[in-house]
């Protein structure tokens, strides 16, 4: 296997390349999908997507897709051929967004943001399938931001949209299921 065209070095520091790994997990986080920026832009406008989002989102999405596919290409080329599992991003909202009304989120705006999430997960899923990597899909059903037991930290939390300990367990269980089904 050859490195991607135009690439002469690995994106991994030498100390990681010298230690063979049996498994790599690729787990996108809230900053990777820009939840805070999207929520702010969407919630502060009358309609979502906004004019600013129409300009910003395609550029961000293109960079996300490029970076994700480049990472998957590098992982596919690792000489020890570790198992690679791509974690899809979870739905942070769930079926109820009532608690987000104070920041301007409506059901229509939620649908618009989830459309972006679906596109991000499609990039991850398609890339994983092309590289023959496994995919894990964490299930946050009934544990969205406005639920009594959310798996996601709220918009005013220190780390908004990041998983709570319960969310981390849900992610770990999805990873375990995906690895067991090999």
Counting H and I runs of at least 4 residues, what is the number of helices?
A: 6
Rounded to an integer, what's the Rg over CA atoms?
18 Å
Into which percent range does the helicity of residues fall? Answer: 40-55%
Q: Which residue ranges are poorly predicted, with pLDDT under 50 across at least 5 consecutive positions?
A: 1-8
Major sheet summary line? 3 strands, parallel
Adjacency order of strands in the biggest sheet: 1-2-3
Q: Count the beta strands.
A: 3
Q: In what range is the share of β-strand residues?
A: 5-15%
Question: What is the molecular shape?
Answer: globular
Task: For the record, give the distance between the C-alpha atoms at the N and C termini, rounded to a whole number.
Answer: 24 Å
Q: What order do the helices and strands follow?
A: HEHHHEHEH
Mean pLDDT: 80
Given helix and strand content, the structural type is mainly alpha
Structure description:
By secondary structure, the protein is mainly α. 46% of the residues lie in helices and 7% in strands. It has a three-stranded parallel beta sheet, with helices on both faces. Strand 2, helix 5 and strand 3 form a beta-alpha-beta unit. Helix 4 runs parallel beside helix 5. The N terminus is likely disordered.
Structure, briefly:
The protein is mainly alpha-helical and 182 residues long. Helices cover 46% and strands 7% of the residues.
What distinguishing features does this structure have?
46% helix, 6 helices, mainly alpha, disordered N terminus, single chain, three-stranded parallel β-sheet, 182 residues
């Amino acid at each position: 296997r050859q490195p991607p065209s135009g690439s002469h070095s690995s994106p991994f520091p030498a100390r990681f390349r010298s230690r063979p790994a049996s498994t790599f997990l690729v787990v996108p986080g809230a900053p990777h999908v820009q939840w805070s920026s999207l929520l702010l832009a969407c919630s502060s406008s009358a309609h979502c997507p906004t004019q600013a989002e129409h300009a910003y989102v395609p550029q961000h999405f293109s960079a996300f897709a490029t970076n994700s596919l480049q990472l998957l290409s590098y992982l596919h080329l690792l000489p020890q051929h570790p198992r690679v599992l791509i974690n899809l991003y979870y739905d942070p909202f769930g079926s109820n967004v009532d608690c987000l009304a104070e920041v301007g989120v409506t059901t229509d705006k939620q649908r618009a943001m989830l459309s972006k999430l679906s596109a991000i997960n499609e990039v991850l899923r398609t890339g994983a399938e092309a590289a023959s990597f496994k995919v894990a899909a964490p299930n946050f059903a009934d544990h969205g931001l406005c639920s009594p037991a959310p798996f996601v930290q709220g918009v005013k939390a220190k780390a908004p949209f990041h998983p709570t300990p319960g969310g981390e367990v849900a992610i770990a269980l999805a990873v375990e299921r995906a690895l067991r089904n090999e």
